[in-house]
Structure formats: structure tokens, C-alpha cells
Design goal:
598 residues; Glutamine Phosphoribosylpyrophosphate, subunit 1, domain 1; 6-stranded antiparallel β-sheet; 17 strands; 42% helix
């Protein structure tokens, strides 16, 4: 886990790479990689790669980056982990490749040398990397299937810059910082900025599951090698039905395998442990597949201590059940006040979430951990959110009203001024938006509804931003063609909430504390296995996941209602600096978008 950066001046009319600018970009990301730093510039001085290292695998100097092949043709700066690199390395050695290190970075270099862009179909892990081809004067940028690791690009038509953080690119001083309407509108709609947009017109995210190449003539091509919608559609050839027991056995094997892969490291790996099913299942599976001591960490809230909302008690019980070395660290609203400025500085793009993740990562760092497993992604994969039940019911019940012209808009215009005084203003949009999945999902996850945007943005920004976002058409494209309702909602939650908020927040919050967070429940092989089970007549749910370990979870965990960290954190944000606030997290969102540190 690291920070990567680079500049490629592909136009002959641009000066050579400014090493001082590249150094500023690299050094802004010092927290991402406190264990080492490196900078490499091509022979013609047109391309430069930079790196900050957080050493997890092969802690020696052999893992130093940027790394080059022995013949000097290929050079790489890599952020992430490739969990199947031992197998890939063995395959490459059989083809004559020789290695000097024990790290996955060198495997990526040789894999690209052997397969080019097709290498991406072989990778299992979280990654964002850049490979420079000295011979062809071509830059190759790639990002993992689900967007666990970020990669931001600024291309002004003469030069391309890239980095692991938006703010790192800004630190270089050569970015167009004109506000991006789609970024602003997207933030107020969702509480985070949907990719590929950022809050600046000069910076875009490389979309998850895609790669980009650019050559010396400035010709760039962006391709998708993994499409979430296509991956969730029914296979062309029907799969053989499985019995429930057969399906549960396949589920156990897939879950145990992903946990085993995510425990590979040359440093101790901890587990974020709450009283929820996702993290407790990870601990149970880790106890099966690992012979090393298990380290677990729980974040407790002083406001909830010794109450029904205190998750630390059950977490301690689970830790004892699986004999992990467990610690509970306590936080309170005063800690939020103390850390507020540091947290905002670490937040790479505005997000209404992420505060709890920031504090649990801070706690992990204080205990000496360098790597931790998180249960993020379990709700999207196994249908843990209320949306999996609510959205299909809402769409089915309101579909008949969609045929009445003007009903939805009329109801909204009449009811919105009244409802906002008594309940969520979203209810005014039920008939206008609730009769299809894209509209119903916006009702479920939206921060502001489209008709409320004039409260926070000017008309021109709204018009341009909505047009560039492609409105609800883009949301529809996420689920369109997926027949199973469970998988429809999974596509929406994965593409929007998980990708644009949870994963992005996990990255900046963990990297602020030089901590690598791994996500075993967001894994391409597990995803394939779960999708396949759904089309054999056995869609896996959270209970199926929770009963999969060989040593069963305690009954008080299996029978516990879903809960989480959100309640105290929400209260902290609502009461930030003691101000009287309006409903929900909207006041916090306004502060974030107006804060000059973000």
C-alpha cells in the first residue's frame, strides 16, 4: 500500500518533466508511504514516476519503487496488493522470467512484459499502478475491479499527471481548479462525488475496472476490463442448480479462500471487529485458515458505554470465543473536536461519511498495526441493507401510478412545502421517483433531491452538473438488464454507495494513519462465486455468510439486529461546534463543501 504519482509531457511543445513539481506531489503523500520514497525520470526527461512506500510484503530494499525490468524497458509505480502474485510468479518463471525480489510489484512488471493490458484479467487484489514503456514511449494506467484503490488523472492536452490523491495533484501547482458542476451536483445528491468526477474540472478519476494508455503523440485510449452490470447479468448458458447444502459448501470455500489470501503479509494483520456479522465472520474464518496469532480491534464510544448500543461487549465476547488478542479503544465527541482539522485535511474529497473509519484507523495505528481487515462490502454482496427489501416493494407498489400524467410532479409541488416541517422532504418525491429502481434508489440514498438543489447551488451549476452526470439515466444503466431484484440492488449499492463513498473514505482515512486496510468481502473471485450461486438458485444472504465458518459464531451475534457506528458519529456531525442544525447530515455537507481545506 503506497502513494503513486507521475507526469508525462507527451507534447513536444511542453518542457521536460519538472522534478520539483513531481517531488511536491510525491511528498504530499508522505503518510501513504512512510517507509520509503523514490523518483525516476525517463531518458528523454519526458516522463517521471514517483512513489511513497508502505512496506507490507518484502520489507527489504528489493521492493523499492519505482521499479524497473533488468533491460530498462518497463518501469512501474504501484499502489495496492496482488493476492495471487505467488501463483502468477510461478507461471512467469516457467516462461523464463527471473525475479530479484519477493514482492508483487516485480510480478506486475513481468506480467505486463508478457501479456500487456491482458494482464489485468489475471489479477486478484486491490491496485492502482502506472507502467512506462521506454521503448514505445507509452504510459499505461490501471485500476482494480471495484475501485478499492484510487487513481486521479489530470490531462491538459499537452501533459498528463496522475496521483493517488486529488490533493497531491493540487500540491504540484499545475492543475485547473475551476469548480466542476457535476462534482458539486453529485455531492449534494449523494453525499460524495460520483466518479469519474472530482470537485475540479482539471482532475478526473480513472473509473474502477478500467485502464488508460497514452502515447508520445497524445493518443489516449480508455478501456473497461470489468463491467459491474455485465458481470451481474445472467450467464448465457444456464448453470446447473445446486442443493442448499452444496451452495453453502461452495460459499464456505469461497469465503475461507478470500480471507486466507487477504492475510498474506510480512507484518502482523489485524481485524476491525464490531458486533456485526461481517467482521465477526471474518474473524471466525481467519481462525480457520491462519496459524498465526489473531489481533482484533474494536472502537467503542463513551456515549454508549455500558448501554444497549455498546458493541464493545459483544465484540469482546467474540474475541474470546476465537481467542484473538483483542483491544478496545474508546472515543467521544471531544476527540472529534480535537481531530476535526486533521480529519478535514486528510479528507481527499468531500464526503459526509468516513469519520468513524478515520477514528478506527487512528486507533489501529496507535496499537502498532500496519494492516487490518475490514468487513466493508458485506452488505452490498449479501443484501444486508434495508434497500434490498424496500426498493423492490416500493417500485412494485408505485408502478401503477406512473401511468398517470403529472401525478408525481403535482404531488411533489403540493406536498414538499408541508412535509419538510414534519418529516424527510424526500417523501414529497415518492410518486415522481419511486416507480423505478433508479428513482427509488435516489430516494433511499440521496442527500438532497433534485428539486432541492436550488437551496445550495446556482441554476447554471445545477443545469450543467445534472447534464454531465446524465441524471438518472446513468443510475438506470447500472442496474438495467439485471433480472434478479437482489442483484439489481447489489449493483446500485456497489456502484454508488460502496465505490464512491465507503471505499474512497476507507482509503483516505486509513492512509492518513499509514495503515493498509484490506477488504476480503470485496474480492473478484468471491464476487464471481456469489454471483454464480445466485444463478444456481441459491442467492447467498448475510445469514448464509454468518453460518459458513466451521466454528459457529455465538448465538447472541447470529441473533443480534443489524447496527453499527453511525448513530454517535451522526450526532457528532450534527452538533459540530454546537450549532443549531437542520435535518440529518445536510449541515455537515454544507460545511465540507465550503471548507477551504477540502
Amino acid at each position: 500500500m503506497c502513494g503513486i504519482a507521475g507526469i508525462y509531457n507527451y507534447s513536444n511543445n511542453t518542457p521536460l518533466v519538472d522534478v520539483s513539481e513531481l517531488t511536491r506531489i510525491k511528498d504530499y503523500m508522505a503518510a501513504r508511504g512512510p517507509d520509503g520514497k523514490g523518483l525516476w525520470v525517463s531518458e528523454n526527461k519526458r516522463c517521471g514516476l514517483a512513489h511513497r512506500r508502505l512496506a507490507i510484503i518484502d520489507l527489504t530494499e528489493a521492493g523499492h519503487q519505482p521499479m524497473s525490468t533488468p533491460d530498462g524497458q518497463f518501469h512501474i509505480s504501484f499502489n495496492g496488493e496482488i493476492y495471487n502474485y505467488p501463483q502468477l510468479k510461478a507461471e512467469l518463471e516457467q516462461k523464463g522470467h527471473r525475479f530479484k525480489s519477493q514482492c508483487d510489484t516485480e510480478v506486475l512488471l513481468h506480467l505486463y512484459q508478457e501479456h500487456g493490458a491482458d494482464m489485468l484479467y489475471k489479477l486478484r487484489g486491490m491496485f492502482a499502478f502506472a507502467i512506462w514503456d521506454e521503448q514505445d514511449q507509452k504510459l499505461f494506467l490501471a485500476r482494480d475491479h471495484f475501485g478499492i484503490k484510487p487513481l486521479y488523472i489530470a490531462n491538459n492536452g499537452k501533459s498528463i499527471r496522475f496521483a493517488s490523491q486529488v490533493k497531491a495533484l493540487l500540491a504540484g501547482g499545475q492543475i485547473n481548479t475551476t469548480p466542476e458542476p457535476a462534482g458539486l451536483v453529485g455531492f449534494y445528491l449523494w453525499g460524495s462525488i460520483p466518479e469519474p468526477f472530482t470537485r475540479y474540472q482539471g482532475i478526473r478519476a480513472l473509473p474502477a475496472g478500467s485502464y488508460l494508455t497514452i502515447d508520445a503523440k497524445g493518443h489516449s485510449q480508455q478501456h473497461s476490463y470489468f463491467d459491474l452490470n455485465q458481470a451481474l447479468r445472467a450467464p448465457e448458458t444456464p448453470l446447473t442448480p445446486l442443493s442448499k447444502n452444496e451452495a453453502l459448501e461452495q460459499l464456505h470455500l469461497a469465503l475461507a479462500d478470500t480471507v486466507k489470501q487477504h492475510l498474506i503479509a510480512d507484518v502482523p494483520v489485524g481485524i476491525f471487529l464490531s458486533a456485526g456479522l461481517d467482521s465477526t465472520t471474518l474473524l471466525a474464518l481467519a481462525s480457520e485458515v491462519s496459524s498465526d496469532p489473531l489481533h482484533t480491534l474494536t472502537l467503542g464510544f463513551n456515549e454508549y458505554k455500558n448501554t444497549a448500543h455498546d458493541e464493545s461487549i459483544l465484540a469482546q465476547h467474540v474475541a474470546e470465543h476465537y481467542q484473538s488478542q483483542h483491544q478496545t479503544l474508546w472515543v467521544q465527541q471531544a476527540d472529534f473536536a480535537t481531530e476535526r482539522e486533521a480529519l478535514l485535511h486528510a479528507m481527499d474529497q468531500p464526503s459526509i461519511d468516513g469519520v468513524n473509519t478515520y477514528f478506527v484507523c487512528k486507533a489501529a495505528k496507535e496499537t502498532g498495526l500496519k494492516v487490518a481487515l475490514s468487513g466493508v462490502g458485506g452488505d452490498e454482496l449479501f443484501g444486508g441493507y434495508p434497500s434490498f427489501n424496500e426498493l423492490p416493494k416500493l417500485v412494485k407498489s408505485l408502478k401503477p401510478f406512473s401511468i398517470i400524467p403529472g401525478l408525481g410532479k403535482g404531488f411533489r409541488l403540493v406536498s414538499a412545502p408541508i412535509l419538510k416541517h414534519y418529516t424527510s422532504p424526500k417523501y414529497a418525491g415518492l410518486f415522481e421517483y419511486g416507480s423505478n429502481y433508479e428513482g427509488a434508489y435516489l430516494l433511499r440514498r440521496g442527500l438532497y433531491m433534485p428539486w432541492e438543489l436550488p437551496q445550495v447551488l446556482d441554476t447554471e451549476t445545477i443545469k450543467q452538473g445534472w447534464q454531465d452526470l446524465n441524471g438518472l439515466i446513468a443510475v438506470k444503466q447500472t442496474h438495467n438488464g439485471i433480472k434478479q431484484t437482489h442483484l439489481k440492488v447489489s449493483a446500485l449499492e456497489t456502484a454508488y454507495y460502496l465505490r464512491n463513498q465507503l471505499l474512497r473514505d476507507t482509503d483516505w482515512a486509513s492512509m492518513a494513519h499509514s495503515l493498509e486496510v484490506r477488504t476480503p468481502l470485496i474480492d473478484i473471485e468471491l464476487f464471481k462465486a456469489i454471483t454464480q450461486l445466485a444463478y444456481t438458485g441459491n442467492p447467498a444472504n448475510k445469514i448464509d455468510m454468518a453460518i459458513s465458518p466451521n466454528k459457529q459464531l455465538p448465538n447472541d451475534i447470529l441473533n443480534k439486529p443489524k447496527s453499527g457506528f453511525s448513530i454517535p458519529v451522526t450526532e457528532w456531525l450534527r452538533n459540530d461546534k454546537g450549532e443549531k442544525t437542520e435535518r440529518g447530515l445536510r449541515p455537515w455537507a454544507k460545511k465540507l463543501i465550503n471548507d477551504e481545506t477540502i
